[in-house]
Amino acid sequence: MIYVRVLFKESTHDRALSVWGCLLSADDDPWANLNVPDGYRLEMLDGEMVLVKDDSVAPKRKEIDCAHIVILNGLKDTYLYDNRVMTDSYAHWAYLAAEDDPVVTFAECVREDSR
User: Fold this and answer.
1) Is there a contact between 60 and 38 (Cβ–Cβ < 8 Å)?
2) C-alpha span between 64 and 43 (Å, rounded)
3) pLDDT tens digits, 51-104
4) Pairing between strand 78-82 and 48-53?
5) In Å, how far are 24, 43, 44, 48, 53 from 4, measured between CA atoms?
6) pTM of the entire structure?
7) How far is CA 46 from the centre of its chain?
């Protein structure tokens, strides 16, 4: 298979396509093994094949499993963490550090150590 990049202006479009056709046999398709992402199509623009968004294809809805995401509501912000990769204790101390309230952090530390 021969790969050729053909650049041309609109005025030489027909000539470039005929050269392209001569270099490739009827069975050769340079784009045959190209996996075009869903929602896009190949189109010739300014002498090059480019990916163009295909508005006729509806986007696929992706389901996201959020059962393992935990929410911590703070005074300054809302914090999210994944309890599959972070322990609740570590997340709690990271939350207290992010909130930057030394009095609450001290009280939590004393409460935790007294158990």
Assistant:
1) yes
2) 33
3) 888 888 776 788 888 999 999 999 889 999 999 999 998 999 999 989 988 898
4) unpaired
5) 9, 16, 14, 11, 24
6) 0.44
7) 28
